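Hey, can you fold this one?
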Amino acid sequence: MMQPDTDSESAGAEMHRSIMTAFCDVLRASQLPPMTVMKLAASALGAVYKEVADQHGTDGVCPCGWQPNRRTDIAVLQAALAASMEAVPSADLRVMQAVGRA
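Sure. Predicted structure:
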């Protein structure tokens, strides 16, 4: 069995916390319906993708090696979204939300 990538898991946990915090803040401040705020989050992610992809261009000069391909990248992002909704909840304490105090 392959060992999980700890750096990737930590980054994912941090991204989850950041997005959840932003979602809750916007939901609370705007009083918009949750699905409207979800659509705003999706639009923001799309805008971030576009900005980063535009900076990488197609000339391959970025040392990270990523060469954006809108069609395949969007398919990967859609698959990740779908997979995350089907995923079994993690037992990782870093991503669990506190529900009370001891």
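The mean pLDDT is 84. Let me know if you want another pass with a different chain boundary.
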